[in-house]
Structure formats: structure tokens, C-alpha cells
């Protein structure tokens, strides 16, 4: 009979541990998924912002005899623009390139009907994502316009501001959902741990009544919490990256190439899983350590 009871308790303990591990893994999987979405949303937000370009134009009036000197001056100006702080990427567009582009856009193929020197050379500038901010874009344009050799700077500031605001709103919503998932993670893991500790409340109180110190009682529970937290975190991360790998292979698009961000995400999820599990265990165990024997029947 004693053996049957002991086997029953072992099965119940094993079932309780499995439930806690699965709960931790599931919650951390969802939290990690939101983290990956947030990382990639930020990455593609920056990519889209970099596609919004500013065009800096050189003087269209020049003497053909001095064309070599003019090109040299323009290349020097181009290098100065490349060195500016707000500039992410710059492309030098010669008069010939501008003419060819104009031909394509107008559908003109014959050179006899088209004068190539009517378009000025220019520099196409892609700003760093942070300078697409409406509060900073004017500063960036002023720096470009102040570069010697540049006579005019044109950009669709209305489009830039609209794209910037829309992307920021999307990122705010994703960040809000990530915070919500974090709160849910804390609540769900905490509830799973509390149920596990609740089933051992009589053991905790018995140990205390026979003279065991609180630290002595807490130690095995904390050790077990660390192990469960590690197993749950590892399981959640394996499922997360397995599902993510399957997703990107089906889509055919590489996501989240920044290894530093991935390492931070993995470390954050791992530590979060262990930390929440340990803290929940401490609080739940401490509650029964402070309670009276009679309270154990009504907790």
C-alpha cells in the first residue's frame, strides 16, 4: 500500500513538473515570437526609410570646354556629401546618366530628338533612418545644401513624414503587444508555479514545524525552479527557432540577419524564463511559510 501511495505521489510530481515545463515553454515561445517580429519590423522599417531619397543637384550651366574640371569638382563634392553624418548612402548621377533615365521615363529611344546636356548632374542621397524623423530631416537637408557645388536640394518631405509616422505607429503597436505578452508570461508562469507549490504546502509547513529554517526549506524549491526554468526556456527556444526556420524557408526571405540582436533575444528569453520561475517559487513558498496551519486548508 505504501508503495502504491509513493508511486502515485511520484506520478503526480512528474505530471506537475511536466505541466510547469510545458507552460513555461509555451509562454516563452509566444514571447520570443513577438521578439522576432519586433526585430524584423524594426529592420524593415529602417530599410524602407533608407529608400526615401533626397536629390542634390549641381549647377546645370557649365562650359563644355571645362567639362573635365567640372566633373572633378562634382566628384569632390560627392565625396564630401558621402562623409556627412546624416548620409547612409550616396549615388553620383552624371548628366549622361540623367539623360538616359529621362529617355526611359519618356519612352524616347532616338538620340537625335533628345539633347543630353539639358539635365544637371546630381547626387541621390539616402539618409540614415533616424534622420527621416521630421524633426531632423531639415537639418540633414541643410547640411547637404551647404556643401560647396550644390545649388539645389529636392525631396518629397510630405511623403517622408507620412511614411515615417506610419512606420512608427506600426512599431508602437508591435511593441505594445510585446509588453502585453510579457505581462501574460509573468502571470501564466506564476500561476503554474503557485499551483505546483500549493500541492506541497503541507510538506512545507511540516518541515517548518519540526524546526527547519526558511532558507533550508527554500533551497530545494529554488533549485528545482532553476532546473524547470532552464528546461522550459530551452524547449521554448528550440520550438521557436524551429518554427521560424520553417517559416523563412517557406517564404524564401532571410529575416533577422543581425546576430547580436538574436543573441540578446535568446539570452533575454532564457534569463526571463529562469528568473520568473525562481521569483514565483520564492513568493509562493514564502506565502505558506508565513501562514498558519489552519490557513493551509483554506488557501
From TrEMBL:
Its main location: membrane. It is found in: Cell inner membrane; Cell membrane. It is a multi-pass membrane protein. Residues 177-292 form the ABC3 transporter permease C-terminal domain. Residues 54-153 form the FtsX extracellular domain. Keywords: Cell cycle, Cell division, Cell inner membrane, Cell membrane, Membrane, Transmembrane, Transmembrane helix. The keyword Ribosomal protein does not apply. The chain crosses the membrane at residues 20-39, 170-193, 221-247, 262-289. The keyword Transferase does not apply. InterPro entries: ABC3_permease_C, FtsX, FtsX_ECD. It comes from the Bacteria. Belongs to the ABC-4 integral membrane protein family. FtsX subfamily. Required for cell division and gliding motility. This is Cell division protein FtsX.
Amino acid at each position: 500500500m505504501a508503495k502504491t501511495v509513493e508511486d502515485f505521489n511520484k506520478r503526480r510530481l512528474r505530471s506537475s513538473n511536466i505541466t510547469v515545463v510545458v507552460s513555461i515553454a509555451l509562454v516563452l515561445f509566444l514571447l520570443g515570437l513577438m521578439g522576432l517580429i519586433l526585430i524584423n519590423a524594426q529592420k524593415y522599417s529602417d530599410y524602407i526609410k533608407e529608400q526615401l531619397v533626397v536629390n542634390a543637384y549641381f549647377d546645370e550651366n557649365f562650359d563644355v570646354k571645362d567639362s573635365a574640371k567640372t566633373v572633378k569638382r562634382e566628384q569632390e563634392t560627392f565625396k564630401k556629401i558621402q562623409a556627412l553624418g546624416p548620409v547612409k548612402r550616396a549615388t553620383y548621377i552624371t548628366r549622361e546618366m540623367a539623360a538616359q533615365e529621362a529617355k526611359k521615363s519618356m519612352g524616347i529611344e532616338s538620340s537625335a530628338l533628345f539633347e543630353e546636356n539639358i539635365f544637371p548632374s546630381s547626387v541621390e542621397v539616402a539618409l540614415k533612418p533616424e534622420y527621416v524623423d521630421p524633426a531632423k530631416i531639415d537639418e540633414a537637408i541643410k547640411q547637404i545644401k551647404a556643401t560647396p557645388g550644390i545649388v539645389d536640394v529636392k525631396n518629397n518631405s510630405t511623403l517622408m513624414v507620412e511614411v515615417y509616422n506610419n512606420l512608427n505607429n506600426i512599431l508602437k503597436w508591435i511593441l505594445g503587444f510585446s509588453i502585453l505578452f510579457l505581462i501574460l508570461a509573468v502571470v501564466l508562469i506564476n500561476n503554474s508555479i503557485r499551483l505546483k507549490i500549493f500541492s506541497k504546502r503541507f510538506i512545507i509547513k511540516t518541515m517548518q514545524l519540526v524546526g527547519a529554517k526558511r532558507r533550508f526549506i527554500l533551497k530545494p524549491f529554488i533549485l528545482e525552479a532553476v532546473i524547470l526554468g532552464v528546461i522550459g526556456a530551452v524547449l521554448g527556444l528550440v520550438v521557436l527557432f524551429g518554427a521560424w526556420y520553417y517559416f523563412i524557408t517557406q517564404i524564401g526571405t532571410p529575416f533577422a540577419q543581425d546576430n547580436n540582436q538574436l543573441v540578446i533575444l535568446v539570452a533575454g528569453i532564457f534569463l526571463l524564463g529562469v528568473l520568473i520561475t525562481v521569483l514565483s517559487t520564492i513568493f509562493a513558498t514564502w506565502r505558506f511559510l508565513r501562514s498558519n496551519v489552519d490557513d493551509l486548508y483554506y488557501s
